[in-house]
Model the fold of this input.
Amino acid sequence: MHPSRAFQAVALLVGLGLFTVALGIWFVWPWALQLWIWPKTPPLGCAFVAAMLAGGAAPLVWIGLSGHLAAIRAPMLTGVVANAGIALHLFVKHARPGNERYLPFATLFAVGSVMAAIVFAWGRQLPAPGDRSIPRLVRWAFLFFAVLLLPVGAALVLGLPYVFPIPLSADMAAVYGWFFLGSFVYYLYGFWKPSQLNATGQLLSFLVYDLFTIPPYMTYWAVVPPVFQNSLNAYLVVLFASAVFCAYFLLGDSRTRLIAGGGVIAPTAG
Done:
């Protein structure tokens, strides 16, 4: 098998595996929760973790189906940042009583960061045939996403209260914050390297994240404690706005449409 075909198959299998775990966590299935740092994570926390995992899986599945291997750069750069930050936090806190699961997960995330760095370096050498520019609105929206994600991620890592719309322990907040900081890098890269290959994965990732989080957090709106009301309102506004935006450009705009001529399209990378 040609190396590129082998990598395409690996990307598809990893993406499908990650998506399966995301579904398991979203449905709070016990086997899936055992694969997360905190098996007793409340349902709304599970929905967020599942959304992040599914959002990360979506570009891998698309790359595996489309064969646009050069598009692997942006998600791998995201993986380097998010995994490294989470690994460092868990390693620093692993010696405290009750944190017995932290060290193995710190190792897992550290390995993930190294692997992502290797794949990113490899992906930089790949050509991007058929790649083309994207609408200016999409590029500037990516910068807007990045500007939103950076302060939220930093605030969670620093342990500031009421940033996320549900109660979180300090360690959970830090891990969620690194997820956001990884996403910050993802969309900043999309602004810096505006191309259809990058944009397709990034739009798809955000849309999948939105679809996983909107239903449970809309239900939560009716019972949210007052101290989290403002953060939930802001969170839902971003979810709905980004879902509409991403769905339009993936399905309605010919310059960034995901499906064309009956097949997976996705010319883009950068």
Remarks:
- The radius of gyration is 18 Å.
